[in-house]
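Service request form, structural biology core

Requester: graduate student, group of Dr. S.
Request type: structure prediction, single chain
Budget code: on file
Notes: please return the result as structure tokens.

Sequence provided:
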Amino acid sequence: MNDPIRRAAPAVALVLLAAAGTFALTMGARQSMGLFLGPINSATGLGIASISLAFAFGQLWWGLTQPFAGMVADRIGAGRVLLAGVLLVALGTALIPFMTSTAGLVLAIGVLAAGGAGMAGPSVLMSATMRLVPLEKRGLATGIVNAGGSFGQFVFAPIAQGITAVAGWAASLQSLALITLLALPAAWVLRGSHAAAAAAAGATAKPLSTGEAIRQAFADRSYRLLAAGFFVCGFHVAFIATHLPGVVASCQLPPAVGAWALAVIGLFNIVGSFAMGWAVGRWRMKSLLSLVYATRALAVLAFLLAPKTEAVVLLFAAVMGLTFLSTVPPTAGLVAKFFGPANMATLFGFVMLAHQVGGFLGAWLGGKAFEASGNYDWMWIADILLAAGAALVHLPIRENALPPRAVVAA
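Core staff response, request fulfilled:
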């Protein structure tokens, strides 16, 4: 009885290492890009708003790729999708220093790097993890994978800042591109699809087609409310990841504070992700999401009113880190609970698309607001209002599973 369990443990650990490691490398590279906004502007003279457009398009494209990457992964397997995604992240990141126009930056940052990160992003990684991990461990597993992205941000931001200080921002981006390639072996570990797994298990129930699953999901009010809340999450995450170094600079604080603020967000996000992975098996996921968004609203309000010192910035980063990506495990868990794992990558991909539409607006409007007013105050106010709205939006969600005949076969 114990021997099979002991033999299975390394396989589960390997799956979690592959998924969390991939998310760490791709998310770490993406979430460190805000450190290069100023240097890119100094080198190209394009203006903060124009460069923010490239970052904003990256947020949108990262989301747009996820449902389609999920469809491919659900049908032919996650391995090939992840392989292509990691290579595109490395290529796009390496090309950024050679781009001197807005269109070039949109291509490198927005299409290649962000698109690759979307292909190797949460929808495919979470789906592959749920397929390969036992049911009773899925809540904690999603928290561990999510923590991987946080760990990547914690590690990459200081590394990027340190290389920039020693060798310049271009060399720093080239280094990040090479480090990202360490995720390539994960494509082999996470290979396979839900369809193949179901066939191997001898499943007799015919899973819904992709089109049927999408129509069923969008007809469900709870799914739409969940996507609306995740839109707000994207707005917060993209605005802070892109513009927090600019906020620090506008407060006349040293640039290193911006890098450490991003690192602190990543560090405390690890704590938040593990805690949320543990909590989703014990409390209602919609209630946890409401609590996270309410906490964000209060944290931003306190930061807006507080004096902007190094200690205040780092404390704010710590609080935001606890909530930064902790929305992912309960959101992914609700999608799986509503519709089953067979089309998980596709349906969670559409929720991620809503997240990234919010991300596009958060990154782009942050640059527009700063150019118009010289500060980010209006963006912080929008953050507070949206977070309060998201806390309320999750309350009507019906968390109970759909009737048996409507649940997609695993």
